[in-house]
Design brief:
39% strand; 25% helix; 3 helices; homotetramer; alpha+beta; 5 strands; 137 residues; Thiol Ester Dehydrase, Chain A; five-stranded antiparallel sheet
Chain lengths: 137, 137, 137, 137
């Protein structure tokens, strides 16, 4: 997929995101990434709250690997790019890149699993799989 | 009540609590205060997760007024003092003070209400009222 | 000022904002409010990071009073309305309202003070006062 | 090193740590892990705020890989175990495990780098290396 076809989510860095080192606190890039995944799903017609209420399931992160390349700072305008790289019956994999203009700041590889609210693995609803598949390479 | 009779909750300031101004981010004192209230309740035999699971209720903050007097910084050892100042049938009021040694840093006055998970006001369970009452002045 | 003249800041509720009670965690409305104040200032040409770097000052919350009227939940689209209600030499006061459509969810009254990075009170830079004044009623 | 020789940091799960799915939000385990690393360093006589003020350096996470095995929930009493697995001139590696009793919930492998506040790589101060080395296997 061309880079331009990745889902793009813009965000701003506020005081809440930074720490006394003057940069964005390392855990907060995972918050940014989850916002981006939520918006990508919403644009595909999949809302987390409806998945919970109607299907009794949620997408949970099983594994993530995060490379911190350069720090973001207060007032930065960032973009989170999201690309679904693999879809299985109950799991999906994604690559997320946090950018500031042309600079790649943080790179996140994730594996997500579909779970019941009771915590057991569940199949991805067919509609979700199909819609994500159109976005997958 | 003598000051020494207030519930005392110690905590440490970590990077996650601070912001790029080099001080604790203003919203985070409310996180500290809620930890202290939870521990005070736990010592009285009241756990939030059991209140939710067994009684279907939660204590929600209805109103708070926060005075920021002096800032806390990274690595500070703080104490949150909690005093229940009033108990009603479905509400309670408390004063919480965040200290560093003898310095009063932040002062929080709260009104909490007992709510069902559906969001309606509910009476405080009798056992909770009675145990809190012993701590109230 | 007509309500429509208040600064409007839209935001979405994500998992990070919610808690196990199924609603937005009470401290997080202060994060939402600070984002809205930052964007209001940015639109007036005042960036927090530039205030720190160029003027050596920051706007710190001195006092806030928060009324929690109705809870927000996952996936809600919210608006934070901000109105500067008073401007002094070194302080300003504001009212912020978190809405979901026509529902007022949370109401925040704040007093902010201008501070040097060393923690002492400082006068608001004249340009900032003047630009905020045009927004004040 | 025997498991019992790993640094042990106890913590409690509060509402602030959980999300609407009823479990601890995935980014928050990184907050727990950083608290544990800070306390391990503090016990070795190394405080983050002193490193910044006196040496002008900070330890920043360069890479982390996180396995989410089982979720933690509200009121859980957790332990974060920390083991330094490798020390270089400017970097160190660590393994951190979040446990609830005998259950391994989250496993975090990290690479940290020593940085100047300006963002460039720096050597670990000799005293820090030496004290960490005694804890390394």
């Amino acid at each position: 997929m061309a880079e331009s076809a990745r889902h793009q989510f813009p965000l701003r860095v506020y005081y809440e995101d930074t720490d006394a080192g003057g940069i964005v606190y390392y855990a907060n890039y995972l918050r940014f990434a989850e916002r981006a995944r939520s918006e990508m799903l919403r644009e595909l017609g999949v809302e987390s709250s409806r998945l919970m209420a109607e299907d009794g399931i949620a997408l949970a992160v099983r594994r993530c690997a995060v490379d911190y390349i350069k720090p973001a700072v207060l007032d930065d305008a960032l973009i989170v790019e999201t690309e679904v790289t693999k879809i299985g019956g109950a799991t999906l994999e994604a690559l997320q890149i946090v950018r500031r203009d042309d600079d790649e700041l943080v790179r996140i590889e994730l594996k997500l699993g579909c779970m019941t609210l009771g915590g057991r693995a569940a199949r991805l609803p067919e509609g979700v799989r199909e819609r994500l598949g159109r976005n997958c390479n």
